[in-house]
Amino acid sequence: MLRRALLKAAPTRRLFSPSSSSSLSVTSLRQSSSSSQIPNSHFVEHVEDPPQPPPSATISVDRSNLYHPPEHSHEPSADSELVKHLKNIIKFRGGPITVAEYMEEVLTNPKAGFYINRDVFGAEGDFITSPEVSQMFGEMIGVWAMCLWEQMGRPSRVNLVELGPGRGTLMADLLRGASKFKSFVDSLQIHLVECSPALQKLQYQKLKCMTDEGADGNADKRCISRLAGSAVSWHATLEQVPTGSPTIIIGHEFYDALPVHQFQKASRGWCEKMVDVTENSSFRFVLSPQPTPALLYLMKRCKWAKSEEIANVNQIEVCPKAIDLTQEIANRIGVDGGGALIIDYGLNGIVSDSLQAIRKHKFVDILDNPGTADLSAYVDFDAIRHSAEEIPDVSVHGPMTQSQFLGSLGINFRVETLLENCNEEQAESLRTGYWRLVGEGEAPFWEGPEEQAPIGMGTRYLAMAIVNKKQGIPVPFM
Ligand SMILES: C[S@@+](CC[C@H](N)C(=O)[O-])C[C@H]1O[C@@H](n2cnc3c(N)ncnc32)[C@H](O)[C@@H]1O
After folding, report:
1. Taking residues 103-122, what's their average pLDDT?
2. What residue owns the CA closest to ligand 1's atom 14?
3. Helix (H) or strand (E) segment spanning residue 290
4. pLDDT exceeding 70 applies to what percent of the chain?
5. Which site from 86, 111, 407, 447 is most exposed, i.e. has the minimal number of CB atoms within 10 Å?
6. Packed helices 402-409 and 411-420: angle between N→C axes, nearest 10 degrees
7. Are 189 and 157 in contact (CB under 8 A)?
8. With the C-alpha atoms ordered 341, 343, 348, 354, is the resulting torsion angle positive or negative?
9. pLDDT digits over 167-219, tens only?
10. Contact in structure between 255 and 322 (CB atoms under 8 Å)
11. Cα–Cα distance between 380 and 256 in angstroms, integer?
12. Residues 160, 144: contact at Cβ < 8 Å?
């Protein structure tokens, strides 16, 4: 996303205070001598009928791990469906949820997730991505895919998979740009991995799809993109994409949407940061009092890091879904042949505290009105490399900056060719788009309003390839 040089709005992160036990007067406390009794600190029962004598003692109960429901009220709740859902999970589980679970619900909850029901891209939406900035981005990815296809020995059938295609702009530009290379486009079976029904519809339109009813008019419906005559199908996960053919996988700004777990160094060791509900019914961060399952991934991640790297940070983000997805990609490529290209913003090392929320092009608090802002985190490219390298038969290349990647694939020649055949308005848009894709900082040529100055993404975004070793080194990583 074009994350402008905005200062990150520092959300107040109120952390769990371990000594929050409180005294509670109760009229009756069910007690049992049985060894299977529920510990007193978790079980408080108020008995009203028949009337009981006044309590003879005040009993101290540790409530720090209990959910505190807000006062009962007949006022209609202003909470959205998603907020109610999140609060219910916390309530019925009897404790806070991980940041990763929160992020996953916020982005992809099937009813009310941020991506599920609407178009969030572009000036009218919440953020803008490289394919939306300029057609040259998708065209250059097409050049990369064609070069890999050549290195693969020009197979006659290839699965071209895009993870999280957004509006479908990258794939549309790729197909338009490649349409003259008939044997390449004729080999393609396009598979779009997309969780959002609303975005699937946009992708269908963007790829100018038509549905062929099939011979018997129902079961064998096939969808064809009129941009290149290739068959297109949609899947909720990569696992659902058929195996058995060489595969080219593109993941642009997909990994940054995968849920991250956040850990914080405390006096008792690394503790997972969780999301809880306060007594006045708002969300807050707390630290888990016990070890959590994601600690296993933290340990795995730390094994890949140098000790100085860990010593220098007080927080660490880990993304188990990124590790698992990378291994799934690497396994598939190792068996079927082909390669994957991952482009995203991130670091080539441990990511400390990068999770951010963006609504209408502005940074907002991560816990504010969940479902109405995009959540994303920096991609840990070093973790991706280590995950892929655990799989035999694949090699990992990069990361290199987006600027180096697009420059080596020939974006300079492409922009010059396009500039030869356009009017002044189109030329302005091409120059701005070019700067956004490969520049660094504010464009020096900009003469318009300061707040609209194009900001380059050329060095903040990184590109990495995972390929089957048989193919050798992919362009432009030689
Ligand atoms: C940040 S957008 C990037 C869109 C596009 N690649 C671009 O660059 O414009 C993330 C995309 O991934 C999809 N997505 C996010 N999480 C997903 C998941 N778990 N499974 C499938 N699609 C997902 C979103 O619906 C959206 O299309």
Report:
1. 94
2. 164
3. none
4. 82
5. 447
6. 60
7. yes
8. negative
9. 999 999 999 999 999 999 999 999 999 999 999 999 999 999 999 876 565 55
10. yes
11. 9
12. no
Virtual torsion, Cα 413, 414, 415, 416, nearest 10 deg: 50
What is the reported pTM? Answer: 0.85
Question: In ligand 1, which atom is closest to the CA atom of 120?
Answer: 2
pLDDT tens for each residue of 39-49: 222 222 222 33
Per domain, the residue ranges of the chain are: 1-20+79-478
Q: For domain 1-20+79-478, give the fold.
A: Rossmann fold (3.40.50)
Q: Which residue has the tokens 């995972």?
A: 466
Q: Identify the CA nearest to 294 among candidates 256, 259, 253.
A: 259
Q: Is the dihedral of CA 298, 300, 301, 307 positive or negative?
A: positive
| CA–centroid distance, residue 256 to ligand 1 (Å) | 9
Query: Residue 185, exposed/middle/buried by CB under 10 A (0-12, 13-18, 19+)?
Result: buried
pLDDT tens for 65-89 read 544 444 545 555 689 999 999 999 9
Furthest-apart CA pair in the chain: how many Å?
93
Kind of pairing, strands 188-193 and 261-266? unpaired
Residue nearest (by alpha carbon) to ligand 1 atom 17: 195
Select from 105, 107, 115 the residue to mutate for testing ligand 1; criterion: most ligand atoms less than 8 Å from CB.
Answer: 115
Output the ligand 1 site: residues, CB below 6 A: 107-108, 115, 129, 131-132, 164-166, 193-196, 199, 252-254, 257
- For the record, the structure tokens of 401 come out as 């900056």
Structure tokens at 334: 């190792």
End-to-end CA distance of the chain: 28
